[in-house]
Write a structure and sequence with these properties.
Blueprint lengths: L1 E7 L16 H18 L4 E4 L11 H12 L11 E3 L17 H7 L8 E2 L4 E4 L5 H6 L10 E6 L1 E2 L8 E2 L11 E6 L4 E4 L5 E4 L10 H5 L3 E8 L5 E7 L6 H4 L2 H21 L10 H14 L4 H18 L1
Parallel strand pairs: 1-2, 2-3, 5-6, 6-9, 7-8, 9-11
Antiparallel strand pairs: 1-12, 4-5, 10-11, 12-13
């Protein structure tokens, strides 16, 4: 039996405006969700799956919550969506605590029967791995072998390479014999890997671009269409770009971002040079710190940066003594 399911990476919808965005972030994220649902409808999908972090916070405010609620309820033509919409609970959705689901914006969508939260759907052959603390440890210990799923959709730090923090390499993820495809949200950059046993891992990448990272600015934003046979004899995938996701140069304050980077580089250089004693030989200890603070003031550096430089100088002086 042929099935089609559309997967959407982290939305991070929020009523708070990111400081580096030029557009209306709340409105844009709701439009991105709407377009994704329309793509699923136009491709005659049997289901739609949100890969977690639908919201950027557990409670995002009435405007954002209502926009998302309206979008999940029906399209621009006034008709409801002709497929069920499933959700993987993300860490941002519940402020990293599963007990917060009932009082969160995501919980509202689930209670209103607009989103389906479940662990496994046998008709689709898809299991859902919701965020819980220490879930990478659980995955390493075989958590994704508990369901006879053809496809796993999870919100966890599964990666194809080492990253900062807690993560698990796809190569090390135990999967059941029947499982052919693992799809993950949470880590915000796209990944695609097939390992030696033929099992495949895909992260389509986040959709909501709250932070002005290099990846968010430069990358094309896609959703993932999976067209497959329920018995696993065929699994075809396609990344589909979202037209509502404008290029980074059109929605981010590129000039201000660059100025911030330049200022950060100047601050780091200031601290680094502080540790060099050659220029302080004929200056008394007390005057060193006064001179350093005056220099930081002239350069218009953040007082915390200057404090760090003074601390660095004290440590160097103590070592020299």
């Amino acid at each position: 039996m042929g099935l089609k399911v559309l997967f959407m990476g982290d939305n991070h919808c929020d009523s708070l405006q990111p400081p580096w965005r030029t557009d209306n972030y709340c409105l844009t994220t709701s439009q991105e969700l709407l377009e994704s649902l329309e793509i699923a409808r136009d491709n005659s999908c049997d289901a739609f799956v949100l890969l977690g972090d639908v919201f950027n916070r557990a409670e995002v405010g009435g405007e954002c919550r209502n926009l998302v609620l309206k979008t999940l309820k029906k399209g621009n033509n006034g008709d409801g969506w002709p497929f069920p919409i499933y959700v993987v609970v993300g860490n941002h959705d519940i402020a990293h605590d599963p007990s917060n689901l009932g009082k969160s914006a995501l919980g509202t969508m689930i209670d209103a029967d607009l989103l389906i939260k479940t662990d496994y759907d046998d008709d689709l052959g898809i299991a859902f791995g919701h965020f819980v603390p220490h879930n990478t440890k659980l995955i390493k210990e075989g958590e994704l072998m508990k369901e006879p799923a053809l496809i796993w959709a999870v919100h966890a730090s599964v990666t194809t390479r080492s990253i900062h923090g807690d993560f698990v390499l796809f190569e090390d993820v135990p999967l059941a014999k029947k499982t052919k495809l693992l799809i993950a949200g949470h880590v915000h950059f796209p990944m695609d890997q097939v390992r030696k046993d033929g099992k495949r891992f895909i992260n389509p990448g986040n959709v909501g671009r709250y932070d002005a990272t290099k990846d968010n600015i430069n990358r094309e934003i896609n959703v993932l269409l999976v067209d497959y046979e329920r018995d696993g004899s065929r699994i075809d995938t396609q990344l589909i770009p979202l037209k509502t996701c404008l290029p980074g140069k059109d929605i981010f304050k590129i000039d201000k971002i660059q100025k911030k980077k330049d200022k950060k580089a100047e601050e780091m250089q200031f601290i680094k040079q502080t540790g060099k004693l050659s220029g302080w030989v004929n200056v008394s200890s007390g005057d060193k710190y006064v001179t350093l603070r005056q220099s930081g003031k002239i350069k218009k550096l953040d007082v915390r940066v200057v404090d760090k430089a003074v601390e660095t100088l004290r440590e160097v002086n103590d070592k020299r003594k």
